[in-house]
């Protein structure tokens, strides 16, 4: 799915100029990467609602800058501390021939029908909600599905278990090895606490019978 947004170049810089832009309903920003960095401005309402869409954060975007289309990636944005207002946005140009390193959201399927939940009474714990991947821009998925349809109580899905689209690989770094846990089904705390006294009573019963 192609995601587009509009931008225009701005000549003014500085705190005062940015403040005036925001009062006029625009967002100051910058696009950088191959070539010169360019100061830009965007319509606040358009970008505010686009930021609310998950795919806007994990896609190659088409920026229409003064009528010229450029492939870019959202790198950062700043929100006002207490107002629903976007303060600034940063974009990076994308070279379609080079691999991206980007976070992709995880979509969890069949959570309610997982055996560990439906019959085991367990609770799902999401350790990760996105993963770092490496791929060419054309292969970038909007999300990666994680099917929990067969997950039992006390079991987990690890990074190495993920089914990745063609051309996409995990960008392993830090502690995110293949055995890192993505999601698990835990025994509810209340159930675990209830099992402990019951187990103690079961062990004590034979001893009492021998007296």
Q: pLDDT under 50 segments (min length 5)?
A: none
Number of helices: 5
Span from first to last CA? Answer: 75 Å
Percent helix range: 10-25%
Q: Report strand %.
A: 35-45%
H/E series, N to C? EHEEHHEEEEHEEEEEEH
**How would you write the strand order of the largest sheet?**
1-3-2-6-5-4
* Strands, total number: 13
Task: Please outline the major beta sheet.
Answer: 6 strands, mixed, barrel
How does this structure look, described?
This protein has 5 helices and 13 strands. It is of the alpha+beta class and 211 residues long. The N and C termini lie far apart (75 Å). A 6-stranded mixed beta barrel has the order 1-3-2-6-5-4. It has a 4-stranded mixed β-sheet with strand order 10-7-9-12, with no helix packed on it.
Which short descriptors sum up this protein?
alpha+beta; four-stranded mixed sheet; six-stranded mixed beta barrel; 211 residues
Summarize the structure.
The chain has helices at residues 15-23, 44-51, 54-57, 115-118, 189-210; strands spanning 3-9, 26-32, 38-43, 61-65, 68-79, 86-93, 100-109, 123-126, 130-135, 144-147, 156-158, 169-170, 181-186. It has 211 residues and is of the alpha+beta class. A hairpin with a 2-residue loop joins strand 4 (61-65) and strand 5.
């Amino acid at each position: 799915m192609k995601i587009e947004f509009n931008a225009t170049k701005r000549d003014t810089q500085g705190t005062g100029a940015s403040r005036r832009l925001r009062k006029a309903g625009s967002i100051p920003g910058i696009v950088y990467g191959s070539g010169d960095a360019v100061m830009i401005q965007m319509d606040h309402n358009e970008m505010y609602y686009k930021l609310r869409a998950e795919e806007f954060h994990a896609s190659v975007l088409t920026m229409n800058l003064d009528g010229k289309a450029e492939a870019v990636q959202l790198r950062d944005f700043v929100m006002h501390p207490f107002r629903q207002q976007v303060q600034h946005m940063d974009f990076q140009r994308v070279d379609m021939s080079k691999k991206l390193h980007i976070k992709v959201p995880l979509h969890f399927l069949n959570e309610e029908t997982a055996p560990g939940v439906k019959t085991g009474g367990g609770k799902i714990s999401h350790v990760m909600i996105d993963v770092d991947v490496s791929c060419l821009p054309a292969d970038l998925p909007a999300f990666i599905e994680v099917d929990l349809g067969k997950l039992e109580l006390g079991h987990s899905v690890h990074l190495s278990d993920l089914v990745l689209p063609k051309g996409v690989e995990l960008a392993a770094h830090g502690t995110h090895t293949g055995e890192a846990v993505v999601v698990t089904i835990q025994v509810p705390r209340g159930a675990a606490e209830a099992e402990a006294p019951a187990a103690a009573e079961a062990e004590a019963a034979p001893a009492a019978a021998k007296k």
